[in-house]
Design a protein that fits this description.
Strands 1-2-3-6 form a four-stranded parallel β-sheet, covered by helices on one side. Strands 4-5 form a two-stranded antiparallel sheet. Helix 2 packs parallel to helix 3. Helix 3 links the parallel strand 2 and strand 3. The chain has a single domain, classed as TIM Barrel. With about 300 residues, the chain is an alpha/beta fold. About 30% of the residues lie in helices and about 10% in strands.
Amino acid sequence: MNSLEIFNYVIGQCRANGMKIMIDFHCATTNAAGHNYPLWCDDKISEKDYIRALEWIASTYKDDDTIIAIDLENEPHGKPDENPRAKWDDSKDSDNWKYIAEKAGLAVLNKNPNLLVMVEGIECYPIDTKKNGNYKSTDKKDYYFNWWGGNLRGVADHPVDLGKYNNKLVYSPHDYGPTVYEQPWFEGSYTFDSLMDDCWRDNWFYIYEQKKAPLLIGEWGGFMKEPNLTWMTYCRKLIKENKLHHTFWCFNANSGDTGGLVLDDFTTWDNDKYEFVKEVLWQTNDGKFIGLDHQIPLGENGISLSDYH
């Protein structure tokens, strides 16, 4: 089987088992480390190529509701003194992720208006948008920083506009703990409230609080030990108390900085981790899981993406 045949086989297995898929574009070229490149295209893959690839996915599988969403780009990022780097403003520049996400999102939805479009954040955003809204400063002191794909501060000033398809838009930040990187908000002791004040609210949780758009935490997870477990517990609390949509990173055992839901044989559940995550999976009162394939209204035990608050 070639790569496309394998891809279609996997989709068929998901279809047969009632599983739904969100396609996540990780890099421009076939490269296991391609996610380290900050943008959605490079010197080999043009913006036109990138959008054409998205259109192909949307068009090819438009009659198969196994694929329900497309995350337009995994973790666009880049620091202000790096070139290239992703920015978020009101320009039509080729490195403006907000502008590209609109073009790409509309291209997808024009091919299949039934899909959801996930838009992640970037890495840095100007502290003073009046003086530095065009990212002219290369001084890191002039910017707010967050995880790659996790900085959605720009939505407050320049929300993504998909026109008549705006009800298909979902913002999707990524969030991690100190074993992935010792961010400033982890220094010393931290609490649920300090994480909210120092990271979550201003970077992306305000989108939910202010009912701007649906929100899905596209990645969270890690090892079940300190210094990560405390953060994991607080993140789970945030999800549970607010009934936030989320996808856990990850199933595979070979994620070096987070581990997986299965052990190294890729078959055996990591039962401690599974029990931890299970608490925030959609379930009925009698413990049955709720999926899009079930004859259960999603709103009864959770919330639908169109009823996000």
